[in-house]
Design brief:
single chain, about 425 residues, mainly beta, Rossmann fold, Thrombin, subunit H, 2 domains, eight-stranded mixed β-sheet, six-stranded antiparallel barrel, 6 helices, 20 strands
């Protein structure tokens, strides 16, 4: 029944017949050699971007395929349920040797959908469908034959690094010479399958996916090709919790705000990438209300961290805690929860656990945080920096904080 959900958007209105569709020759694709390791991939999003009222084909009936009722797109830009196309996507890539996350014929498949390291999305920019129901009125009204073409703009997204690693555009289709029970849906999905094969024929999918899968149980090490940033020590250093509050800033970007913390004497403020977004400059507000401009100099979307360069105005920087904060260690979260006027708020908790989630180190704490705390420091009772707030979860009125762990192996992208 799922396949027919797609056809609900395909509304036919009577008018003269449309022209026949030219189908490009089928693409030739070589399967991967047996034993080739590939990183798991999943079809995540399908969008149809046709103009409202656009004619995208016709339906004909009876043995001679006469009449001709145009198919009129009524929806404008619509995001479809990717599961409608997932079976086709998985079947085509499975046959070519890729590891595809999605629907499985194995009812006991426990791997689930969360293995995917890469997500694929497609935007259908154009589509033409020419379908005939030859047995309408005299037999099985659902049996159809015909052809369909579509142009798909593809994006391949690295879920771990939070970036698009490949784009491609394909235009091909499918012709079904004999009647099939699937009707219009089977022809449209077959045309989509040909576009999946055409994507593989570009070679871009192989470049992104061929290789050893990541082990999410082991924390990622920073990429050694990035030049380490040396923080200049010396000068004023926070040695008390109250000093750490003075070294914590509020960052204003767009119509939102977050928090950050001063490191070293060069004026580097550490925060979350999702706090600064795509901004090149952000406003920095210090604990005493003084404001200045900060330049976003480095970001790492995968780790959700960013560095902002600003004038430290002689304020003390936080020291990095040398020893690991073990479970039970008292910790304090500093930031501006919910509202800007709540800047300099401090909450207390303990280190509840150390986690490796999606291949990144996290510290779990029960210190209470809220939106606006993002990027703010988690410190010990001497004001030493342990990590920065990334996200929060509330379960049965109990708040839990997830912090990015700081360690000496971290490097910052140019």
């Amino acid at each position: 029944m799922r396949r027919y959900c797609l056809i609900a958007a395909l509304i036919a209105i009577a008018s003269p017949a449309a022209a026949r569709i030219d189908i490009p020759p089928p693409v030739s694709v070589t399967p991967l050699p047996p034993g080739t390791e590939t990183r798991p991939v999943k079809l995540a999003k399908i969008v149809v971007d046709l103009r409202r009222g656009e004619t995208y084909g016709q339906i004909q009936r009876y043995m001679l395929c006469v009449g001709g009722e145009p198919l009129i797109w009524k929806g404008g830009r619509i995001q479809l349920d990717p599961q409608d196309f997932n079976e086709v996507f998985k079947d085509e890539l499975d046959k070519l040797g890729f590891d595809v996350v999605g629907m499985s014929a194995n009812l006991f498949d426990e791997r689930g959908d969360n293995r995917a390291e890469f997500l694929v999305g497609g935007t259908i920019r154009s589509m033409m469908v020419d379908v005939c129901f030859p047995y309408a009125g005299i037999g099985n009204a659902l049996a159809a034959k015909g052809s369909a073409t579509m142009e798909v703009e593809w994006q391949v997204y690295n879920w771990l690094d939070h970036r698009i690693v490949a784009t491609a555009t394909t235009r091909t289709g499918f012709r079904q010479a004999k009647s099939d029970m699937g009707g219009v849906a089977s022809i449209v999905f077959a045309a989509f399958g040909e576009n999946v094969r055409a994507l593989v024929a570009t070679g871009k999918l192989q470049k992104a996916l061929v290789g050893r899968p990541a082990d999410f149980r082991v924390a990622h090490r920073p990429n050694s090709k990035y030049r380490p940033l040396r923080l200049v020590s010396g000068g004023a250093v926070a040695t008390r919790l109250s000093d750490a509050v003075g070294s914590t800033v509020m960052i204003l970007s767009g119509d939102g705000h977050g928090s950050g913390v001063l490191l070293g004497q060069q004026g580097y403020v550490l925060t979350n990438q999702h706090v600064v977004g795509n901004a090149a400059y952000v406003k920095i507000r210090w604990s005493d209300g003084a404001e200045g401009l900060g330049e976003v100099v480095r970001v790492d979307p995968g780790r959700d961290v960013a560095l902002v360069k600003c004038d430290p105005r002689g304020r003390p920087a936080l020291r990095l805690r040398a020893a690991e904060a073990g479970v039970g260690t008292p910790v304090f979260a500093i930031g501006a929860p919910l509202q800007q006027r709540l800047q300099n708020s401090v909450t207390r908790g303990i280190v509840s656990a150390h986690r490796v989630l999606d291949g990144y180190d996290y510290i779990q704490s029960d210190a209470a945080v809220a939106p606006g705390n993002s990027g703010g420091p988690l410190v010990d009772d001497n004001g030493n920096l342990i990590g920065i707030t990334v996200s929060a979860m509330t379960i049965s009125s109990t708040s839990m904080i997830a912090c990015r762990m700081w360690n000496s192996g971290n490097r910052w992208r140019n």
